[in-house]
Task: inverse folding
């Protein structure tokens, strides 16, 4: 449902641009302060730096845990760009910056004007989100993937199609490899789609949704077998 709130288009565009710019500046400022790793962050960084790609699939040292997709990208950056705080925090920074834009795109589907500006400002200026955008942990990735999945789901719920279902099915596979909470987001989206197609008696898309869920379950089992089964 789209909710209109009063602001001229020019004023709204200017305000949104300023708020997003402020969010970008805050994230770069946090990134460039070069603060030292805190204990948990340092322990995860040691696993990334001291292991090869295959060893990252094994249980991590120092009671650490993170999605394998996040670890592999961090290791790739480490191999290509070197070993320092800025390199290890570059991937979270990238996700933090992208989250600003896709959150704005998601909100545009529901509101405009003052409501849109305030919501974007709350997200953009949130101190925890600014902080997590420069931390060697997977948390900002959870935020990015949750927003991205919801953005895809909104399009699909408004205009269901085989192409969009296929896109969601494919994107849902790597999502869980980068964000464990995405399992709950995907389950919610899948349940909503099943309910919608049952109500509409859209049995073609209902079958596709069930197939999509089956693919996701195989994906969860595969990830569990490769990286989670041996965790204590």
Result:
């Amino acid at each position: 449902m789209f909710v209109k709130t009063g602001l001229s288009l020019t004023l709204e565009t200017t305000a949104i641009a300023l708020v997003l710019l402020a969010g970008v500046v805050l994230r770069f400022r946090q990134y460039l302060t070069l603060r030292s790793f805190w204990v948990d962050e340092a322990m995860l960084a040691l696993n990334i730096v001291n292991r090869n790609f295959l060893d990252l699939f094994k249980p991590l040292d120092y009671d650490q845990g993170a999605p394998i997709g996040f670890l592999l990208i961090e290791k790739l950056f480490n191999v290509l760009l070197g070993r320092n705080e800025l390199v290890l925090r570059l991937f979270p920074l990238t996700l933090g910056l992208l989250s600003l834009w896709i959150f704005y795109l998601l909100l545009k589907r529901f509101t405009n004007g003052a409501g849109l500006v305030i919501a974007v400002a709350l997200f953009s200026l949130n101190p925890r989100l600014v902080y997590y955008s420069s931390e060697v942990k997977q948390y900002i990735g959870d935020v990015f993937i949750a927003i991205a999945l919801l953005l895809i789901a909104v399009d699909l719920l408004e205009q269901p199609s085989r192409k969009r279902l296929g896109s969601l099915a494919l994107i849902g596979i790597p999502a869980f490899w980068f964000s464990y909470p995405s399992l709950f987001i995907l389950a919610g989206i899948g349940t909503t789609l099943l309910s919608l197609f049952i109500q509409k008696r859209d049995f073609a898309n209902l079958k596709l949704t069930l197939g999509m869920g089956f693919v996701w379950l195989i994906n969860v089992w595969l990830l569990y077998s490769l990286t989670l089964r041996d965790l204590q």
